[in-house]
Amino acid sequence: MALKLLISVCLLSEIYGCYTGWVPYQGKCYFFSHTTASWADAGSICAQLGSKLAEPKSRQEANFLKSHSQSLDKSFYLGISDLVEEGIWEYSSTHEPITFNLFHPGEPCCYLRENCLIMWEPFHGDWGDVTCSDPYYYVCEVDDGGSPSVIG
Ligand SMILES: [Ca+2]
Predict the structure, then answer these.
(1) How remote is the CA of residue 60 from the centroid of ligand 1, in Å?
(2) How far apart are CA 132 and CA 146, in angstroms?
(3) What's the 40 CA to ligand 1 centre distance in angstroms?
(4) How far is the CA of 74 from the centre of ligand 1 (A)?
(5) Which of 65, 80, 87, 114 is 20 to 30 Å apart from 42, CA to CA?
(6) 54: helix, coil or strand?
(7) How far is the CA of 86 from the centre of ligand 1 (A)?
(8) How far apart are CA 123 and CA 106, in angstroms?
């Protein structure tokens, strides 16, 4: 699956600082996956694409991702979890705690059973937590201009 992604990215040309198939927004490029993976595997696939699971740093950015996820009618993992310390939701790449959230009322739930953050389609893209080993779609991000480095 990862290889298939790499090959498809290799064949794409770069437009406006983002590869085709990557969505530009305010200095970043986002890839909304077409396949599903566990949260950990999703992070690995993003890394193989020279990117990381998306880490929205503002409510505006989070709302953009939510809106785009809604247009695709799917649930997407983000790079936020409370895996390190239960109840402390942090960005995966920096371990900084989030300063805002789009959690749906009643979320997050389930304590140690659900530790990975998702834009949940049944909640219209609001955030919820799910079991990290369950496969879902995911969003990768890379800084605009730092195009994904791919093999091939
Ligand atoms: Ca938890």
Answers:
(1) 25
(2) 28
(3) 15
(4) 22
(5) 87
(6) coil
(7) 5
(8) 11
89-138 pLDDT per residue, tens: 999 999 999 999 999 999 998 878 899 999 999 999 999 999 999 999 99
Yes or no: say if 136 and 118 are a contact pair by the CB < 8 Å rule: yes
Distance (Å) from CA 115 to ligand 1 centroid: 4
- Closest by CA to 108, choosing from 124, 127, 122, 121, is 127
pTM of the complete model = 0.85
Measured CA to CA in angstroms, residue 77 lies from 10, 37, 44 at distances of 24, 9, 13
- Cβ atoms of 80 and 89 within 8 Å: the answer is yes
Question: Residue 90 Cα, ligand 1 centroid: separation in angstroms?
Answer: 11
Q: Tell me how far the alpha carbon of residue 93 lies from the centroid of ligand 1, in angstroms.
A: 18
pLDDT tens track for 28-71: 999 999 999 999 999 999 999 999 999 999 999 999 999 999 99
Tokens of 58: 């503002």
Q: What is d(CA 138, CA 32) in angstroms, rounded to the nearest whole number?
A: 6
| CA dist., res. 57 & res. 79, Å (int) | 11
Q: Residues with Cβ < 8 Å from 59, sequence gap 6 or more? A: 100, 102
Distance 82 CA to ligand 1 centre (A): 5
